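Just wondering, can you check both lines?
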Amino acid sequence: MAKLFVFNPENDLALACGEPNFTPPAMARRIRRDLQLIQIWLGDEGLVYAPHDEAGIRFLNSVKMLFPESLKADIYDGSCGIESISPWGWSPAIASELGRLFPDAVLEKSAIQKIRELSHRRITVAIANYLKNNYSGIGEFESPVLCCSLQEVLATIEWFGVCMVKAPWSGSGKGVFRVDKENYRVYENWIRSIISKQGSVVCEKYLDKVQDFALEFYSDGCSIRYVGPSVFFNNSRFSYEKAMVASTSLLENHLQKYIKEDCLSLLKSAVAEALGKLVAQSYVGYMGVDMLVYREAGNLCVMPCVELNLRMTMGLIANRIGEKFLEKGRIGEMSVLWHRDAESLTKYVDSVKKPVIRNGRLESGTLFLAPIYPDSSYTASVTIT
């Protein structure tokens, strides 16, 4: 009996839908197909839910030769039983899909519904308020506000000046807009629609961002374990663009350029405590709490809970690669890139330097994290220059 890893990057969209019969948009389906083996880089034992085809097998065998001690996953071929499932994230849709094949390993509907409730951004508000009320050592910050009417949204914009307005269930930059009094009318119908469909929106004070980062955790269903930090960069549409890849110690050293060591230590323990009270008893798996360093009145401050991702994240993958697969002391960059057509894909693949691996660790060059198909639209890679 084995654990099955499933890459379903459309999870946030599926949670917003909330129905078992959900068809992801074409882009999400393509990312899932192209990057379906990316969870092998967790370094955990188990099987990956992906077609047992020549390209996947050839890719997995090639990287296992390079990292014989760290890569412990195989592709599921149907020859053994599945004891548990570890998807990228749980939703009614992925539970329905997998339940047809592995009925004894899928969570019950009540557990899936609880996870959906905990994925609502009201939990972000609860975590932020818990930290604000119990841990003054983190510093002063404005907690996000749950707004259930247009009047409440307008009042919050009046209070904050400029807001990030977010749908309760959304991700990868979708359902997130910068709103102020001047442009409010542009987004009013969208806000009204989200409140009608999802019951509320969350308004955060817009901050002068210096650095995005997250703390990654694991819940065993009883308690919370700190996994490590991730340092990442979003694009102008507020969606993931790239991440630093390095050991936990190097990533924490980088964050200490902006955050004092005692404050970072407090963040790790305080957020773990909040998650232990709000999440741990209802969820088993990885999760990440997005945070940011921002500038206010000339000082660097920390927003300790931008959002809770109750699922795996690309930042988690970057962290695990940095901890388990990179040469000690090296710093790389992990990117997920879209390629317009086969010609641009080939040009990109031919342009990168081949990876140099010594003693089972990446020392330089570019390592691709998933097979490259002739019709791939997306590639994921780690590069050390």
In short: The chain has a mean pLDDT of 95.
